[in-house]
Amino acid sequence: MRTLTKPEIEDFFARLKKTIPEPKTELNSVNPYTLLVAVVLSAQATDKGVNRATEKLFKIADTPEKMVALGEAKLIEHIKTIGLFRTKAKNVIALSKLLIERHGGEVPRTREELQALPGAGRKTANVVLNVAFGEPTIAVDTHIFRVCNRTGLAPGKDVLAVELALEKKVPEHYKLHAHHWLILHGRYTCVARKPLCPTCVVRDLCRYKDKTKEAPLTRKAGAARSLRARR
Known about the structure:
The chain is mainly alpha-helical. It has helices at 6-19, 32-41, 47-60, 64-70, 72-79, 85-103, 111-115, 122-131, 142-151, 159-169, 175-188, 217-229.
């Protein structure tokens, strides 16, 4: 596959920015700690599902100290609708204890320290650094991996390869929001089974050969509503 050229990449992100000037994460949080917990809980789960589970949880446990006091058993009751909830509950309690012991209850601001926390891999660290601390990091999930490989933006055999390619290719002035533009594009337009190519703002730049010729009306309407809600 021929990858996008530098001018095409500039145009690619300019169009995404025009569609959603100030993209935001869809995970609800009230501070860096609750964001960290939400991202850990979001592994193999939807943001909507996590938000439903954390709506009441974060009202009573929005700090590592409060989460440890809540305890694993009660935490499970709050997140039992999320996949792998037992393992995630164990990790959330463990990472909360480490934050207290090693970081004075504060969320660290380096990728290495974040990745050292139970349940927090490179993607989690990149999301926290970007959303909580305004770092221009790019967390590659399944949506971004698909978009980058399908469009020719930054093809790679695995998520790390795609992330490193994006770090080199994304213009500096787009890096802060690149993660959100790409994930929202993959979640609502460049979807896995039948991408909404007719309504895609970068369709003429995209290298995908099997473009969908007609998008179902219901999905087009749903995508439009989702994008308007995030402007």
